[in-house]
Amino acid sequence: MSFPKGIKTLACVGKTTITIAHRLSTIRNSDRIIVINKGQIFETGSHQELIDKRGEYYQMVMAQSLTDVEEEDENLHEWKQPASRQTSHELYPERHSIRQQFSHTSVASLNEQDEDDLERLKRELAEEGASKSNAYSKTGEEVLTEGQQWAWIIFYIGLAECVCILIFRLAFEIASENMVFKIQVDCFRQLLRMPCAFFDDPKHSSERLSTRLAADSANARWGMDYPLGYFFSTGTGFVIAVVVASIYGWRMAILTASSFPFILYLDHRLGVYLERVYNKDSKVLEAASRVAMESIDNIKTVRSLTMEKVVMKRFTDLISVSHNEYKRRAKIQAFVIAFTGSFFYFVYCLNYAYGAYLVVNGTMWPIHVYIVLFCIAEVMHASDYAIGYFPDYIKARYAIGLIFKLLNDKPPFNNLSQTGAKPRETTEVSLKEVEFRYPQRQNQTVLRDFSLLFPSGKTTALVGASGCGKSSTISLIERFYDPNSGLVLLGGTPVPNIQPKYLRSKLSLVSQEPVLFDRTIRENIIYGLENDNISHERIQQVLEQANIKNFIDTLPEGIETNIGERGTQLSGGQKQRIAISRALIRNPDILLLDEATSAMDSQNEAVINIL
Ligand SMILES: Nc1ncnc2c1ncn2[C@@H]1O[C@H](COP(=O)(O)OP(=O)(O)O)[C@@H](O)[C@H]1O
Ligand SMILES: [Mg+2]
């Protein structure tokens, strides 16, 4: 504070001095002070006498001391000597007490209040006590000690925050990773449980199902990973902030809360829109990936039919739908998030003005307004986070919905079931009055009143026009499908009563287009065997039986040769012969050959038929 040096100096040299005072602090040491009001002398006396009198002069000192608070704060840097600070407190104890109450606020406007207001305020201040907000008036050692205490408290809060974040991130990330892992394993197990009819359904295309396993489970992660944790922590902050704000300033809390229905409505609309978009998007992207996979899988056919341009156009058309939708979605999402995110600043601004009004009005303490404003800032932060997290949450919810739909799908029978009969007699197969329609084509009866016996130890051949139901008969024996009526029996036991794994271990199927895996010849032959510790001699034996040993011996790596994806490095006949070796090594009771030698030359076919 710049002290009134002029008057003091003049008084010291004994001069008669008359001064018209604008700032009351400049006349503090005057011998006599005359207060004039409306042209009349109102009161006279020394500073102390007039202060004790609690009259007009006292009121003027009080009023001016409040306006001086701000100026004093501005001039704080001039308080270089502790002595001058001391002097100020001594000279103006009343002002100092007022300052203790208000030093942390900007209440310059208070000097415009009428006297009644001032009196009321003073009474309230006295009641409330100086302890509430005297932080700014502490000095020297006190400041240092308390400052150090607070520094330590903040340090420990920092440590606690570090530990909490560590535990929280680890907990959420490990939990979400475990859940994603479980979802992926459960989904795949569920797929393996499903009957073949499930995969005939176009809704269960391989692209769609693999998306469920990969992309959907990855999207589902965001519904449970650390963003959800942050959502809860900011949510807790939100609740605490709302409670505290309601306690300290319910008027401001109501003003803030009144904006929420609007924001929630906007968010709800955004959620509905996003869910629709994700639904459309996933269908289009699945169709696009189907086109891509089909083309890549059958690249030779695509080339021979010069279909490159056609498949390119189909692919581009499909992803363009998603592309355009994405751009539209980006605009809508950006608009809503920008609007809702910034909206709280407008609410904050209103609260700031309203808070100032409530202080001036004497309805709220400035410190309470600050508390409520801090709470509103916390509410803003929490809401801002929630709004930003919302699209991820919708995406995760959509993905989780699809995953649970798959997991809750109950198969008519469980392919992985461990229960069921294990009959001893498994060398004879019979069909009794079987009627069969494919589940996806219920209007076409493939087998009608079909009864047949495949005697034990005999070779039985099915012949007939293409599409007459030969392969379907084999599918019924393998229990890929169940007949609509009639019975399929293995050694006299109805196939549905037999444990699926046991049933299939007694059968070996070689189909017209055998599926080989991207592995070595040896691995392909023993693939899926529980006991894969098969001797080299046994493998050589089945290779010889399938008449492929000579070919394999010419390969530099022999049976350790990798045959490429789906056996692309082999001819059709070679693939069929490896598939026959694979069937033979299982030593089945019943060997099912469905046009298994169709791709072989007659010489090879003749050798194999000797089996
Ligand atoms: N998964 C399926 N879904 C619907 N219909 C099928 C399916 N598989 C075959 N079909 C139909 O069943 C009939 C018999 O087929 P199939 O048993 O494979 O004939 P083939 O005697 O040539 O082996 C055919 O008309 C065929 O179109
Ligand atoms: Mg067939």
What is the arithmetic mean of pLDDT? 80
What is bound: which ligands?
Answer: adenosine-5'-diphosphate, magnesium ion
- Briefly note the CATH topology name of the largest domain: ABC transporter transmembrane region fold
Quaternary organisation of the protein chains: single chain
Major sheet details:
4 strands, antiparallel
CATH superfamily of the largest domain: ABC transporter type 1, transmembrane domain
Poorly predicted ranges: 1-12, 69-113, 129-133
- Helix/strand/pairing category: alpha+beta
Transmembrane segments: 150-172, 228-250, 334-355, 367-387
Organism: Diploscapter pachys
Subcellular location: Membrane
Membrane topology: Multi-pass membrane protein
Describe this structure in words.
One of its GO terms (molecular function) is ATP hydrolysis activity. It is a multi-pass membrane protein. One of its GO terms (cellular component) is cytoplasm. Keywords: ATP-binding, Membrane, Nucleotide-binding, Transmembrane, Transmembrane helix, Transport. It is found in: Membrane. With 611 residues, the chain is α+β, with helices and mostly antiparallel strands. The protein has four domains: 133 residues, no CATH class; 257 residues, ABC transporter type 1, transmembrane domain (ABC transporter transmembrane region fold); 80 residues, Rossmann fold, CATH 3.40.50; 106 residues, Rossmann fold (3-Layer(aba) Sandwich). It is built from 22 helices and eight strands. The strands form three sheets. The chain has a four-stranded antiparallel sheet with strand order 4-3-5-6. A hairpin with a 2-residue loop joins β5 and β6. The N and C termini lie far apart (113 Å). The N terminus is likely disordered. The site of magnesium ion has 3 residues, from α16.
